[in-house]
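testing teh design pipeline on a random one, pls ignore if ur not involved
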């Protein structure tokens, strides 16, 4: 297991209540001064209420004697001292609230940011992406993210400190009451402990039950996002799905809410019972002390009555604990993801330097692959050689395994059996991160980074972000430079309509940008270029420009082209037909057409479409079929 950049260490038990030590350790890992400030604040907040009450009791008790003997008498001096102490302590207690708020803001910023970074690092540890397709991992990730963005674990230290302060005040109050009636103080203390135990047990149960609602909440979140994102808004409205999406959100959220509401009702019933117990205890104590008021004395009575009021805060301590429990409940998921995903971070081997590879070839040797939880192989005995510096096109029907092949090539996944050999070395023996830097991919749907046009291209080789000449050259080669000239701020234009001053690009423009990003990567060491439907979003002119530059773009690179468009693949040195998880045909365009097999049939179907026009015009009775659509 790799070394974690921990922000505290927490048990993976979802039902266990976070202890004060853990809360302080969470804060201390980000800022020791803040941890000390929180501890000191908690101590001060605990003492201040009792100090005010005791000082006021002294003042009240000294008033009659001071009035009789004058302020110059010892009783008068006691009154003045009591007033000064009470005023100072009260003023001090008033300062505690804004100080606590300041500590809370600082703690929230540091802890939430640190935990979010910790979660991102955990998810990015594995070499591949299989964990991001695992339902259990996604549930745990959703719980952790929900807590980090919704409940703010950074609030836990000050909330916990407030709970400790109130609890300590209650202990002090019980102690003061016990000085006058020991058994009354003892009864209040026992009552308090029982109430806290009952409430905290309910909190633990609710925290555990909430974890079972994560899948429903994740589904609800999906429909909520679907209904509020511009990308889906057009299709949802065109097909009249807005009501359906809202109803599905309501159904999924309602399923999770019903369980949560049931749990909260149980908590409220138990809380109401605890309040009744506390009220009975307080009233009983008042009756006992009131009956002995003539023996206790005015000063003591003035102290005891407020102290009894302080003990009523026992219930609020419990709800502070509830807040801490909820805000901290995402931490076991963060720690569990760190621990479990770290096991996938460094597979066996993976130490050899892949720079400059391949020099000879990449070879798939009897490769089998199936996705977790599935019974059928997606790839079954693939034998395929990609000579270094040449281009290979892979064609096949939807679901044939073309994208899976690319995932194995870039080590986003590993074969179930067989090997992917790079110059004769199993790719699993190469440093995985460095090998992935050797592969530049142009996906069908490139990532739209909310950054400038320049950064979006330069992210292809982040270590060379300052290479402006390389960025401009890659953009020119990909045909993206002309797009930049039309942007309002040129290279500094932010490519996100959700940000101030930002704009969006068309599908074809994003595809040109993705090609520029990959070409920038090849300028800084990447030797393998993967083009996944590189012209799918381009218009006819853009496609023609791409064909004209194909040999220039792929010169000296080991290139893999995945496309349904035969005008693209025919320019490759070798064309392979992937069918049923196997390579069934291999050769040049002319050789495969002459073979008269699957490739020849697919080519003829597509050629006939362009030669004779759309099928609908030739036969209105037939459904229109898009032979060159996306996989």
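output:
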């Amino acid at each position: 297991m790799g070394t974690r950049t921990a922000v505290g260490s927490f048990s993976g038990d979802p039902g266990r209540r976070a202890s004060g030590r853990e809360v302080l350790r969470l804060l201390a890992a980000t800022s020791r001064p803040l941890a000390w400030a929180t501890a000191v604040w908690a101590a001060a907040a605990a003492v201040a209420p009792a100090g005010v009450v005791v000082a006021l009791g002294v003042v009240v008790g000294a008033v009659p004697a001071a009035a009789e003997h004058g302020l110059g008498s010892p009783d008068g001096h006691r009154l003045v001292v009591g007033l000064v102490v009470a005023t100072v302590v009260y003023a001090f207690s008033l300062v505690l609230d804004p100080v606590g708020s300041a500590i809370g803001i600082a703690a929230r910023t540091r802890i939430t940011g640190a935990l979010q970074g910790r979660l991102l690092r955990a998810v990015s540890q594995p070499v591949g992406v299989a964990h991001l397709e695992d339902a259990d991992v996604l549930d745990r990730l959703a719980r952790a993210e929900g807590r980090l963005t919704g409940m703010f674990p950074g609030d836990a230290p000050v909330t916990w400190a407030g709970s400790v302060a109130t609890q300590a005040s209650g202990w002090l109050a019980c102690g003061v009451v016990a000085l006058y009636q020991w058994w009354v103080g003892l009864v209040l203390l026992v009552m308090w402990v029982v109430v806290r135990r009952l409430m905290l047990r309910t909190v633990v149960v609710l925290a555990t039950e909430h974890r079972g609602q994560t899948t429903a909440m994740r589904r609800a979140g999906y429909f909520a996002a679907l209904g509020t994102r511009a990308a889906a808004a057009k299709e949802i409205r065109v097909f009249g799905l807005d009501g359906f999406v809202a109803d599905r959100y309501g159904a999924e959220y309602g399923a999770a809410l019903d369980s949560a509401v049931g749990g909260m009702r149980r908590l409220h019933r138990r809380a109401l019972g605890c309040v009744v117990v506390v009220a009975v205890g307080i009233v009983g104590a008042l009756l006992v002390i009131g009956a002995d008021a003539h023996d206790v004395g005015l000063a003591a009575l003035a102290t005891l009555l407020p102290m009894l009021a302080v003990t009523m805060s026992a219930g609020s301590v419990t709800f502070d604990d509830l807040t801490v429990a909820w805000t901290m409940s995402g931490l076991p998921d963060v720690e569990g993801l760190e621990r479990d995903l770290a096991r996938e971070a460094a597979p066996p081997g993976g130490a050899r330097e892949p720079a400059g590879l391949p020099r000879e070839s990449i070879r798939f040797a009897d490769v089998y692959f199936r996705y977790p939880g599935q019974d059928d192989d997606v790839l079954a005995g693939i034998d395929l050689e990609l000579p270094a510096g040449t281009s290979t096109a892979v064609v096949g029907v939807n679901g044939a395994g073309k994208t899976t092949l690319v995932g194995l090539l870039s080590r986003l996944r590993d074969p179930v059996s067989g090997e992917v050999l790079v110059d004769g070395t199993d790719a699993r023996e190469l440093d995985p991160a460095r090998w992935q830097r050797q592969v530049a991919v142009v996906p069908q749907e490139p990532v739209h980074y909310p950054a400038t046009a320049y950064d979006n291209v330069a992210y292809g080789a982040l270590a060379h972000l300052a290479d402006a000449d390389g960025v401009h050259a890659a953009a020119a080669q990909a045909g993206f430079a002309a797009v930049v000239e039309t942007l309002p701020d040129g290279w500094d234009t932010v490519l996100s309509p959700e940000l101030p001053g930002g704009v969006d690009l068309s599908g074809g423009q994003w595809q040109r940008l993705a090609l520029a990003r990959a070409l920038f990567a090849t300028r800084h060491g990447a030797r393998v270029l993967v083009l996944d439907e590189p012209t799918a979003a381009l218009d006819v002119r853009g496609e023609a420009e791409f064909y004209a530059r194909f040999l220039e773009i792929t010169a000296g690179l080991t290139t893999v082209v995945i496309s349904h468009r035969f005008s693209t693949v025919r320019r490759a040195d070798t064309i392979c037909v992937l069918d049923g998880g196997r390579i069934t045909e291999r050769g040049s365009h002319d050789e495969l057409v002459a073979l008269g097999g699957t490739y020849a049939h697919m080519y003829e179907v597509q050629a006939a479409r362009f030669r004779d026009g759309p099928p609908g015009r030739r036969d209105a009775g037939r459904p229109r079929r898009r032979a060159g659509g996306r996989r």
